[in-house]
Amino acid sequence: MRKVFRQHCLVMLFTVFFTVKRPCQLERSSFKQKCYSLSPNQRTFQLGVGIFGTLTNPKSTMYEMKIGAITFQVALGDIAKESADVIVNSTRRPFNLKLGVSKAILEGAGQAVEDECAVLAKQFHRDFIVTQGGYLMCKIIIHVLGDNDVRKTVSSVLEECEQRKHTSVCLPAIGTGNAGKNPTKVADDIINAIVDFTQKYSTPSLNKVKVVIFLTELLNVFYDNMKKREITISPTFQSTSPQNAYNIPEYWADMNQQLFCVIQLQPGQSEYESVKHRFSQTCLSYRIEKIERIQNEFLWQTYQIKKKHMDMKNGHTNNEKILFHGTDADSVPHVNQHGFNRSYAGKNAVAHGKGTYFAVDAKYSADDTYSRPDSNGRKHIYVVRVLTGVYTLGHKGLITPPSKNPYNPTDLFDSVTDNIQHPKLFVVFFDNQAYPEYLITFRC
Questions:
Q1: What are phi and psi of 408, to 5 degrees?
Q2: What strands, in cross-sheet order, belong to the sheet with 56-59?
Q3: Rounded-to-integer distance, Cα 237 and Cα 46, Å
Q4: For residue 36, is it within any domain?
Q5: 214 and 314 co-located in one domain
Q6: What span, in angstroms and rounded, lies between the C-alpha atoms of 191 and 222?
Q7: Residue 208 belongs to what domain range?
Q8: Under DSSP, is residue 15 helix (H, G, I), strand (E, B) or coil?
Q9: Are residues 211 and 260 in the same domain?
Q10: What is the pLDDT of residues 49-81, one digit of tens each?
Q11: Residues 201 and 244 in one domain
């Protein structure tokens, strides 16, 4: 077995290790500043340009690597003896394959699961079905078709786990058995599906994905794939470094190595008046109490990486819009620190997909449905930079934007809307596709 050396790694998105400490208040002549401190030994961010952590070898028959928020493991073993919230069975229609791994899973789960498979296979025409766990050490079994596209299949499994709030899933090397798929391609597809998932969810419920295989040769294939994604970088990055490729805006106040700051703007400032004007174009009847600028360096950096990627992909820089998002007072601290996490998706609307919704007009977001008044009658709207890019019509049930090209299912639209010619709202499906720039607190 190959020996794995620990090393720092390059990541596609940022990985940040920090603990939020006490808030502090500072008064300045032109604004009020609320900052959130790090302890002195925590003021260095561990950042990179990717999502892959260090490849380790905790056991002689296991490799492990962090992929974003997911702990990814590959190990030799018997999947029917694994313990996880979800176990995945790779089979074929009508979901009753009694060969290889599928045989072990069905026999281990018991006759009740086989009977349930038989019933569900007749009722549903999806590419997977979900049954009870039976005698296996899991809550549910997701039965997938091994002949199907592996990346799409694993993406569907991860989405199903997330929707059900499960924390761990165990799957075989889908398609490498009776389906005869190329093991190298399967390993690549499984890992890429996890990457896709981590780019949608910054803080998912699902936090562990384990691939259990029965051949040492397959273990080596996964090792090679994981190892090639691990690239050494400088172990630390100072947030004030001049080498920062995505500089924070010049108009931001000095953050003094804080995690993030909330800056209260003052009436009469050009920045305040500009935000007020944008809001008042459709919300003249409301009275603004305060406007705050959100200075969150981590969110800004990840947003700029996404913007650069979209600009390159689309061949132009006209991918950003300034939109509005209404919310309640309880959600404000979370958005300020973590952005528009998709765990909030569908909180108020799902008609155009299970993403985060942003309105063209402030009036739409000011509705009590979206910006629910607190006990004192105050309401809250964010002015948001949103990467809408190339968009299309949305519809209920979407969990990602549709594919642009039926022959290339991985080439997706960037966002969806309610009306292509005259959009009133946009929906995005990736956490780093929107930056909450200003928070307006107002009342009727």
A1: -140, 85
A2: 56-59, 62-67, 70-76, 208-213, 168-171, 86-91, 140-145, 128-132
A3: 6
A4: no
A5: no
A6: 9
A7: 56-228
A8: coil
A9: no
A10: 457 888 898 888 899 999 988 999 999 999 999
A11: no
